[in-house]
Amino acid sequence: MGLRTVMKRLGQDMQAVTGAISREDWAMVEELAPGIARHAEPPMAEKVRILRWLGVDAGTFREFDAQVERAADGMAGAAARGDGPQVIHAFAEVQQACLGCHQQYRKPFAKHFYGRR
Ligand code: HEC
User: Fold this and answer.
1) What is the CATH number of the domain that holds 19?
2) Looking at ligand 1, which residue's alpha carbon is closest to its atom 35?
């Protein structure tokens, strides 16, 4: 599924942010955050398949993604101000949103689209 490629990139960008935070390289955090907030999406046909599979859960799934966007935008703002503690706070909020979606949907997603748990 194309979503996996999107997720791999998100994982890499989050790792890069971790490295930038360690170096207090706020300019780099500011540069990386928008790519996390407005990450690539799978092709339209795949999105349709995913949304059809989600059914009534589509709203919850999308809300996790919206949380990633809001938190990553907050992280960019904090980085622009050079506010390290707030960058770290927002980074944790991004991670919470990633984890929330993974805990709820990753296994059922794999089971449905790859036929395994
Ligand atoms: C709206 C739901 C959702 C959100 C939000 C989300 N993910 Fe995922 N993620 C998934 C699903 C579903 C999979 C399983 C994809 C698959 O197995 O093909 C996944 C898988 C992954 C993987 C494993 C990819 C692989 O190689 O198997 C990584 C890494 C990942 N996500 C990173 C992130 C990061 C970092 C964030 C937050 C910035 C995030 N994800 C936010 C739904 C989400």
Assistant:
1) 1.20.120.10
2) 11
